Amino acid sequence: xxNLVTLFVxxxxxxxxxxxxxxxxxxxxxxLVNQTNQQIFKTLERSLNExxxxxxxxxxxxxxxxxITCSFVFxxxxxxxxxxxxxxxxxxxxxxxxxNYDTPVLNFLDRDIVFSYQEFQPLFFNESSFESNxxxxxxxxxxxxxxxxxxxxxxxxxxxxxxxALQVVNLAQVTxxxxxxxxxxxxxxxxxxxxxxxxxxxxxxxxxxAYHRAGLDQMTTKPLEGKEAIMKAIQQLEPLFLRxxxxxxxxxxxxxxxxxxxxxxxxxPKVNFKETEAVLKKxxxxxxxxxxxxxA
Length: 296
Fold this sequence. Notes:
Structural class: alpha+beta
Strand order of the largest sheet: 1-2-3-4
Distance between the termini: 67 Å
Oligomer: single chain
Shape: globular
Strand content: 15-25%
Low-confidence stretches: 1-18
Radius of gyration: 21 Å
């Protein structure tokens, strides 16, 4: 009987581990904070890593190798009386089929980070209530990361997770912390999830799927076809630009992909890149100097 109980506990632990979706690394950088006792920052870092990596965010049953690799870098700018101010760099990536390469999916800098935290304070996520600004921040980006990852594998696969991110935003309306309301700026958490869900910006999600599944995932076996599919995916973004020239999601797309696009078209089989280059210069002029480096 004892052996059966031990086996049950072991199997349960395997199931619980496989259900967790994120392989997250959290870094709390306190270099800019004048604080002699650094222990609070180390404790915070451990707590955030534990929270993101042990929380079950969806009903998916994933294998360890299927977890989404992501990172959260908090660059603290101020700390006083359990109040933290920071910027947060959120990044995620996903593997490319039949390769050892991980492609960046999200690379976003959130400048509106203010939260309260006491050392050893437990962090709990409740999908139906606002617990704290810190928990809401982590939960929001967890769902956005999972949603974007799903969109790269299945057309509109991330929709259900964007609805969960929206729920986090709606519950966070009770706080006075910035980033959750449309009046807090034009490029914040509210607008990220608003844009991802809106039909007005549908080309972003369409291009995200085509870029990865028809493009990158074919590069190992069919590099020419893969490159051509990536060019078509980029060109899919032009109607979005014509409709909304300053679309937030265009910035998000190219913040993640600029280095990869440059590297992809500097190597491998030659393609007719002129049309795509013209589109890139039009829809992402903020990276004009990088597009000039491409000699396809």
